[in-house]
Amino acid sequence: MKKSICILMCIAVLCSSFLGCSKEDESESVTPVEVNDLKITVDAHYSDMDESAVRVYEKLCNAVINHETEIKFNTSLTDSVNQLFYTSFPLYALVDGVEYLEDKTGVSISYKYEAEEHQKKVDEFKTAVSEIMSKCSYGSVSANQYLLNLYTYIATNVTIDNTVTTVMDTIINKKGISASISGMFEYLLLQADISASHIINTDSASIARMLSMAEFNGGTFYFDPALEISENSGSGLMYFAMNTKRAVSSCGGSLAFTDNTEPDEIIDTAYSVLEKCTSYTVEGNEVIASCKGEDDFKFTLS
Prior knowledge:
This protein is of the alpha+beta class and 302 residues long. The protein has helices at 2-15, 51-65, 78-88, 115-135, 143-157, 167-173, 178-190, 225-232, 244-251; strands spanning 70-72, 95-100, 106-111, 159-160, 175-176, 196-202, 208-216, 219-223, 254-257, 277-283, 286-291, 297-300. Strand 2 (95-100) and strand 3 form a beta hairpin. Helix 5 packs antiparallel against helix 7 and helix 6 (167-173) packs across helix 7. The longest helix has 21 residues, at 115-135. The protein starts with a helix and ends with a strand.
């Protein structure tokens, strides 16, 4: 089990209203949405995984939230459970190790922090999730508006920092690498019941960066908020709602889910002009994008 967990943890590290999402104003009063009970979400790519494995995964996640040190389950499901745990649950970062029980009837869980400090970390994470979702107007706007708000929030409030590698720390500290930033985007979409998956883009030199796949305005597209930050200072939508051609051309290489299977090609060109987008505004449910060398591009958030 140590070997499979080690591999998946490596994947996790490499992968790990509109005005409400502008640059944060510390003086602005925002009432957080309540996330006392975090949704145990699953990367959309694994949504058809065996229900037994999903139930064990949920049991493991709840055990971690509550600092429990042992759970019982059919350990033949271990590989599937690990796949979900290390790709879909940011609080795996609080776990120091998972080992089979001697009788192989389940696993023991060890933690990086004692129970009191562990709970503080969990509460800090919940608070950060609540605040971000509130700033992005979760619950009062459409799913498409929330996705745009979240993309904007991340692009304008999160900074690139190669020392921060987990989704948990990126959500709390607002900084990270492409893997943790895209993981943040996906996790906060999944918390809002929006389908999202983690994508690995590997170039010819075997260097990987991460981006996201998500449902938007009736289609499925790629999103790269980390590249929006590093290449466009978070100002536009150059890496928003990309088809396969745009996603691959943005940093080269080939696209794959975290289990190394290839996604179907996305050929929709509805938002391709956005690769030239330098800024945008929102009026009601209409987005008006200023695109270099092009007329303003307008689209509606259904």
